[in-house]
Design brief:
With 272 residues, the chain is of the alpha+beta class. The protein has one domain (23-260). 20% of the residues lie in helices and 12% in strands. It contains 2 helices and 9 strands, in the order ααβββββββββ. It has a 5-stranded mixed beta sheet, with helices on one face. The protein has a two-stranded antiparallel sheet with strand order 1-2. Strands 8-9 form a two-stranded antiparallel ribbon. The relative contact order is 0.13.
Amino acid sequence: MSDAFDPNAVEGEKASGTQYISPRELKIAGIALVVLSVPMYFVYQVLLGNSERHRCISNLGAVYAAINLYAEQHDNRFPTITRTQGDLVTPDLGTSGNPYSWVSDVAPFMSTRQSFLCPSAEGPEIVHNESADSAKKTVDSAYGIYAPYGGVLTSLVESPDEVILVAETSDNGSKSTFDPKPFGSGLPDGFSIGWSDSNFEPGKTTTSVTRLAFPGSATGTTKRARHGTFIQALSASGRLLQLTPPDAAYQSGGTVNSHWRLPPGYRGPGGH
C-alpha cells in the first residue's frame, strides 16, 4: 500500500515519504533561488564584459595589422583620416551618404573574421563608413585614428610606444561624450580623434582630446568608460594601452601628454 497519504496525519503535515512539496518548502526554495541569482547575475555581467573586452582587443590587433599592410603599399604612410570637401576638413560623404574614411581604405586589408567594432559599442556610437568595394555597402566602426597622424610617414612617430594611433571612440557626441568641435551638424566624426580647439588658434590652449568613448565627459569630469573604468587603445608601435578619463587631457601644466604628441613640423587642419 502506498504511504503517499496518511489519513491519521495532522492537517498540514507532510506524510512520510511523500513526493509532494509543501507550500512552505516552495517558499524557501524560491527565496534561495532569488538569493543565489543576484550574485550569479553579477558574475554573468563580469564574464560578459571580459568576453567583449577580449574581442575588442582581438579586433584592435587586426586593425593595427591592416593599417601596417596598408602603409606598406602606400609609401609607408598611415591612411588619411578621410576624403574631404573643398575646405579640407569636412568629410566627403560620397554617393552612399556615409563618410569615406581611413576605415574605408583599411577595410580591404582586414581579416574577414575581425571588425572595426568593439562589441560593447552601442548604436549611436557607431560610424557607418562607405566601403571601398561598393558605395552600396558600409563598414561599421567604433575606433578612431588620432588626427595628426593621418597620411603621415610611419617613421615620423616619436615615442611610438606611447603615442596613440587608434582608440575607442563615440560618434558625434553620443552618450554625452566630449565633442566640442564636430565636423558639422550631424556629420559623422567618430572615425577621428581630435582636439578641444584648433590647436593652432592664437591665444587658445588645447586642454583635451575629443570623441573618446568616455560617457558623460561632455558635462565635466567623468569616471565612466566603455569598459567600466577604461577604454582600449593602440600605440603607434602596436602596444595595447588602457586609457582612463584623465588620459584625455592633452596637456597638464604646459606639458603635452606623451599619448598626444604631434608629428614633427605638423601643421594640419586644426580642431578635428
